[in-house]
Design a protein that fits this description.
Layout: H1 14-27, E1 32-36, E2 48-52, H2 66-72, E3 80-84, H3 92-104, E4 107-113, H4 117-130, E5 133-140, E6 155-161
Parallel strand pairs: 1-2, 1-3, 3-4
Antiparallel strand pairs: 4-6, 5-6
Length: 162
């Protein structure tokens, strides 16, 4: 059950959940999916879903950081990687851990707000050198008034890597 965090409430509103549907479509060929940064909405996939939920919005997800997850768990051989709202915090060690998962993934679905300069730079400079961009979608989503600590980031980029 989701806990009562009100940080990015707009992300679970209908216009923003389209991001999950797009991700699910591209990840449908994967028997395992690792979702980094689950926030109040899990992916609906046919295979095994591993959710890394550092904000602890669900009881049945992994609540540590990405580096700890990789150190503590066996990563499946055949998996898709999803990071909706990609904002890998925690410095270079967290980003290096993300790069390990990204490199090993069969397919990677990455979505982020365009105005997040660090995410934009890391994705543009690092990820595009490792895998080919298969799909590149720009989303211009509506600004929604909700009870949220952080206002909506409406301009977003959605990338699928193979």
């Amino acid at each position: 059950m989701a806990k009562n965090l009100k940080i990015w409430e707009y992300l679970i509103e209908k216009p923003y959940t389209i991001r999950h549907l797009i991700a699910e479509y591209f990840l449908s060929e994967c028997k395992n999916v690792i979702d980094v940064g689950t926030y109040k909405k899990k992916l609906d996939v046919d295979g095994t879903l591993i959710s890394i939920d550092p904000l602890m919005t669900f009881d049945d997800t992994y609540h540590g950081d990405l580096k700890m997850f990789i150190d503590e768990h066996k990563i499946p051989e055949d998996f898709g990687l999803c990071c909706i709202g990609c904002d890998i915090e925690g410095g270079d060690k967290q980003w290096e851990s993300f790069l390990k998962l990204f490199t090993k993934s069969k397919i990677a679905v990455i979505e982020y707000p365009i105005n997040m300069q660090l995410s934009h730079n890391r994705i543009s400079n690092d990820l595009t050198k490792i895998k080919k961009v298969f799909v590149d979608i720009y989303l211009d989503l509506p600004s929604i008034e909700v009870d949220s600590l952080i206002p909506p980031n409406t301009k977003r980029r959605f990338l699928v890597f193979k």
